[in-house]
Each structure stands twice: as structure tokens, then as C-alpha cells.
Specification:
316 residues; Naphthalene 1,2-dioxygenase Alpha Subunit, Chain A, domain 1; iron ion binding; VanA_C_cat; alpha+beta; 2 domains; Rieske_2Fe-2S_sf; Rieske Iron-sulfur Protein; 8-stranded antiparallel beta sheet; 18 strands
Length: 316
Amino acid sequence: MFDDFARHWTPILPLSALGKAPQRAVLAGVPLVLWRDGSGKASVLIDRCPHRGVSLALGSIENGRLACGFHGWEFGGDGSCLHIPFNPDTGLAPRGATALPSRELGGLLWVFTGFDPDSEPVLAPHLLDYSLARFDYYEDWDCHWTRAMENMLDFPHLPYVHRTTIGRFVRSKQKRNSRLTFDLEDTDYGFRFGTRVDDNPPGASLSWYRPNSMILDTMPEPRIQRVQIFCIPTEPNRTRMLLVTVRNFATNPAAGLVFDKFNLKVLHQDKAIVESSDPVEVPASGERSVPTDRPTLAFRTWYLRELKGTSVEASA
């Protein structure tokens, strides 16, 4: 289970997207059902009824319990079987569904790709700052998550893919013989780097949060305009792009519509490029890298060394 993405926390969707009905999602190839129990707590189960293996997401919420749509078996948020129709004398304990560790933090529903977490989700501070204007959005792309992740850490593509949006600021400084340099530094959460074109003032800074998130800071303090993107593996060679943007200025709703539209345009400029990647997954060799690939290669090295080949055994 969770092949090549085992034992890590990742958000799966914004909490605002979790409605009253059970919702199906796929994380690293594993089908899940997301729902809220009677207390309003978000719960995550493997989307498989232990009775006959059907999707629990096809069921309903009955009195705060998840009821299977096939035979009406009812489950609690921890997966425990609470009721089996027509079988009052049948033991419930051995007939539970499989729950996964989950957290409601920073406006997102986090899921652990395993059963016994030895850590908690690492959140960037802006996710907990409710004074900031915020926009959450997600959509699914036809690509491997590692290609999307490298794209989000790739600065040199800005003046080409994003020439009409954020790339125009880089393009205005660029000459035929320009040199792009980084000041990449390791952090507790991954790494961070600033950018500089020739002798121009430093440009945007980017951060990588293990395993699958990028943060782009586009303005110097005290202004905050920050974009965070999570590249979440779903079905094979499918990736959920979860976008969170925040800012501490122009917080009125009308301005928000303008900023949100712009950020979506930037995101969509990347889509066709990333989906065209061949091979689909980042390879260990065979591509011709250059010095400006340093941040993406740092991620790739970590992925191939620490995450590729990982998995967890299915719970009994």
C-alpha cells in the first residue's frame, strides 16, 4: 500500500470541501472514504467494506455513523463496526473497517500514508494565520506527482512558461548571457532557496516542504503574498494539485477575485507542460541536467533515496 509514498503526512483536500455525504478520494493508489462522524470530526477509512469489499463511499451517514450502501453495516470514525442489520448476535469487533490517521489542521484534511505515525504534519506558519486573506483550490492533473513537484521547484522556466504572468518580472532582467544563481540551504522541513539574475536584487524565494509541497514568496516583508502548492499522488500517474494562497494586503472580496483568478492562470500555464513529461516519473538517469537544475535535483535525489520503493503492509 501507498507504494513510493509510504509513511508521510499529506493533505488530501481543504476542509471546506468535505461535505455531509461520504466522499471518495485516492491517495498513492489507495482508495479512501472521507466523512464526518456524529461529533463533526473528519474521519478517513480505506474505501472497502470488510463484508463484501464494496465502496463505503457509496453509503450514507446515519446518526453519525457511516452506513455501507450494500447491506447497511455501520461504522464509527475509528473504523469500528457498530451495527450489522439482521444479525443481532454476531460479534462486531472483528468486522471493522480500516481507519487511517488523519488531522484537521490549517484548514486542510491531512492523512498519514501508514497506520502508526511517529510524527505530526509540518505546517507552514501561514496556514495557521487566520488574519490573512486566503484562497483554497484543487484539481487533478494527468502526471506523476514527482514531475509536478519538480516543476514547482523549477525557477528557470518562469520567463518561458509564465512569460505573461509571474515570468515577466524575470524576463525583464534576462539577457542572452545572463546567469541565474541560488542560495540553497537545508532546513528542518526540507530546503529553501533565493534566486538572483546576474547582479540584480534578489528575486522570489522558494521553499520545499517534505515530501510534496512548495511555497513561493513573491514579496519582501512586511507584505505577504505567498503561494503554497501540494502535489498529491492519487491514482497511478494522477496528481492532485492543491493550491493555498495568502496575503496580508488588498483583503477585500473584490480584490480577492482578481488575485485568485491570476493565481489560477499561473497554475494552469504549467499543466500542459507537466503532463507532457516523458518518462512520466522522474528518472534516476538519462536526462541532461545543468547547474540551474540544482533545486529540482535536490528533490529528485531525496525522492529516489528516501521515498522510492517504500510501502506499507495492508492492515488485516
